[in-house]
Design a protein that fits this description.
single chain, alpha/beta
Length: about 160
Amino acid sequence: MEYKKRVALVAHDNMKRDLAEWVDWNWEILLKHHLVCTGTTGKMVANTLMDRRGNAHGRFDVTLLKSGPLGGDQQLGAMIAEGEVDALIFFWDPMQAQPHDVDVKALLRVATLYNVPTAINRSSADFLISSPLFGGDYTPVVKDYKSYIERTLSNQ
């Protein structure tokens, strides 16, 4: 039985064309899942899933968040912290500093913290969605942070 995953798709401006090509190449797999995208990327993904006559390749489910620099990265991070994202595909640009680098770092940190499968380029995205685990019921093991949450801080 295949399980519908909640897949986040994000791309920096210089990588949006690469992500659009990847989405176009993998549309049949992606249509089986709920997609969550930051603003501009989400519009691009939706357009990619439409053919030239305005008809979708099939029915698709895309949630649009705000643009990354306008808070979309933080919205997505909150969704990850709440367990609302099963995989993150983030085509980031390693050659150009971003005005919201701190948000990007926070997003990648929270994805790592909650052990969300994360792809950062086309090759790792291909490996992620072609894994037999992607189509099945898989729950990542998340470290127990109870001792951190219950710690007491001394006043010095």
